[in-house]
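pasting for the record
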Amino acid sequence: MDLQDELPFIHVALPVLNEPQFLRRLIDCISRQTYKRFRIYVCVNQPEAWWNDPEKSEICLTNEMTLEWLTAVKPGAGFDEAFSSGTFDDSTFVIIDRASKGKGWDLKKFGIGWARKVIMDLIIKKAMPDDLILSLDADTTFTENYFLSVALNFYNNPGAVALSAPYFHMFSDDARAYRAILRYEIYMRHYQLNLWRIGSPYTFTALGSAIACPVWAYAAVGGMTPKTSGEDFYFLQKLRKYGRILFWNDEKVYPEARFSDRVFFGTGPAMIKGDSGDWSSYPIYPIELFDEIWETYELFPSFFYKTSQTPVVKFLEELLKEKDPFEPLRKNFKTPENFIRACHEKFDGLRLLQYLKSNQDKYPGTDEEHLLSFLIGNYDQSQLRNLGIDFSSFSFERSPLKELEKIRLLLFEKEEESRFISALY
C-alpha cells in the first residue's frame, strides 16, 4: 500500500477577496504538490453593500471574474500550464459564492473570519474525523512537499489538535513594504521567542495561512468563532486550551509582504500603520514584562494554597473585578496539576497580551533599546558582533534594510531551534 493512502485526507480552506494576481500563483503551488489527496474549498467573499459603493465596485467585479475563472478550472480548460496536466477535476474545487449580487455578507457579519468559518463548517459536514483542515491565504506560496509534510506531521502525532506552521515573509521589491514587513516580523518573532523563554503555553503565531487541524479537533472546540479579523488567534487559543499544538514542521509557508486593509489588524494593517510611522500597536515589549509573567507562572503551584501578590495578579484583579482571581480555581480544581492548567487557561494568550499592552510604559525606552536588551540578555555576544551592526545607532526607520534582514534571520533561526526542540517532547 502506498504511504499516501494511509495519511489523512486534506481539505484546504481558502478565503479569497480581490486577489486574482495571487490566486493563480497559489493554485499553481497546489497543483505541484507531491501529496494528491486533497480538496480545495474556496470562498470568494465581500459585503453585499459593496455592490452599491462606488469605491468598492471594482472589487466586486474582480471577485465576479474570480468566480468565473475558478468555475472554469478543470482539465483542458487551457488557463495555465498548471491545469493542462489534469491535476484538477470537477470534484477538486468546492466554490462558495459569497460575492455575487444577493449572496454577499451582511455588514454586521463579514470578513475573513466569517469566510474561514463558513468554509470550515462546510468541511466538517463532508469530512471524516481524522481528515485535516488546512487553512491558507491566497497570497501565500510553499514548496511542492508542504501538503505531504503536514499530513505526515499529524500522522506521526495523532493526538495533536493543531499545527502552527513555520513562516517566512517573502522579499519585496518595494523598499517601503520590505522595511515594514521586516519590522513586523521582528516584532512577531521577538514576541514568540519571549513566550518560549518563559514557558508560556501560548507560543503560537497566529497566521491564517499557517494553520492546520484535524476535523475532530475543530468539532471538539466548537469550531471557529467568527471575527472580522484576528479569528486565527482566537481559534488557536481555543485549540491550545483543548490540547497540544505542533510548532515544528519540515516545510514552511511564505506569505506575501504587502500593504492590505482587508482585515482590521494583522500583517497588512500593521504594515500600513508602520509605513506611516505608527508602530504603537506592535511594539517591541520590554523584556522585564515577560519576566513579570514568568514570575507569576512560577508561583502557580503555590497559588493552589494561597495567592501571592504580583503585578500580574493585580492586573487580573482590576481587569476581572475579582478580589482573588485564583480563589474560584482552588474551589473547582482539587489537584495541583488541574489547578495549574486552569491558571494558564484563565491567564490565557489574550490576557497575556493585554497585560503587555497595558504595562509597557512601566519600562521606558525605544523599540530599538528593548530589542537590544533582549538580544544581549539571551544570545551569545559573538553572534551579535558577527551581525556587523552598530546597535548604538540602529534604527528601524533609518538603518539599511540589510541590517533589519540580519536581525530577522537571527530571530528566525532561534525560533526554528525552539520549534524543533518542542517536537522532541
